[in-house]
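## retry 2 of 3
previous attempt timed out at serialization; input unchanged, resubmitting
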Amino acid sequence: MADFTLFLNSFLSYLLLFVLIAVLAVIAVAIGITMRKKKNAREAAEALTRGTEEAQARGTQS
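## retry succeeded, writing output
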C-alpha cells in the first residue's frame, strides 16, 4: 500500500506540473494573439492615415 501511495503522490505531482505548464502556455498564446491584433489594427490605422495624407497632398499639387 505504501508503494501505491508513493506512486499516486508522484503521479499527482507531475500532473499538477503538467497542468501548470499547459495553463501558462495558453496564457502566453492568448497574450501573443492580443498583442498581434493590436499591432495589426495600429498598422492599418497608420496606413489609412498615410493614404489620406497622400491623397490630400496629390489634391493640392494639381
